[in-house]
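User: Sequence in, structure out. Go.
Assistant: Echoing your sequence, followed by the structure tokens.
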Amino acid sequence: MKENAPAKKGLRETIAEMNAMIADKMSKIRFKIPVMSGKGGVGKSFITVNVAVGLASKGKRVAIFDADFHGPSVAKMLNLVDEIPAISSKGIIPVEGPMGVKVISLDMLLEEKDAPTIWRGPLKTNVIRQLLAEVEWGELDYLLIDLPPGTGDEPLSIAQLIPSLTGIIMVTIPSGVSEHVVKKAIVFAEKLKVPIIGIVENMSYFKCPNCGEVYYLLGKGAGERLTKKYGLRLLGKIPLDPYASLSCDEGTPIVLKENCDTSRIILEVVDKLINVVEQAGSDRRV
């Protein structure tokens, strides 16, 4: 047992050093905002990417940490899959995407792009810790963290490793099923005492481009019901737009598209986000 003692002490010291590195790097970032949803398939990465680029279009210094290890898609949505982060004496240098948004995603670090990530919880926590500590984020206004669905290892690790989180953007679609699952994510945030900045209802409705009639193809009202039940803000309702899927496939964020209702609405969400977090100030959470 004595022979094992130094190794255990070394591991504890390494973790403590990395946690100190994380604290130092996070101190240079004004607002740290995870984008979360208990439900998969609600367009969480789409919201992350477009809000980040929207923030950058307004002169903000922005980065995205894609913490969805099993289904990373941020790099694809920003046409950065083939980009490889550089390594310097300071650490890992993020790749720059549209509008100068800095990006780190596991997709960029894998030699085989089609290889699945088959990791258990402790390994995922260690990788999150290492990336947060070793990526040279620099001075930022906003770090958006794209989380996987659910309330498992990745969201818990982020909440524990970055105790200074500004607050969560919670994403839902208008269906009752999504509402049911997102409630669990809201309670998760409450239990961990992480504020929720507000809710974005994605794929809220479809507006016919010819006649202007609105159709609620995926249900109606989940965003309003959640905000009312938990006393939260509704940041916005993003329409179901055929071009949204195309923009993700092409790696061109829809928020950059001119004369587009979806782009306009996302920018309204961005303005609300800025007003909420910057009014609260960088020294306290929302």
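User: And one key feature?
Assistant: The mean pLDDT is 92.
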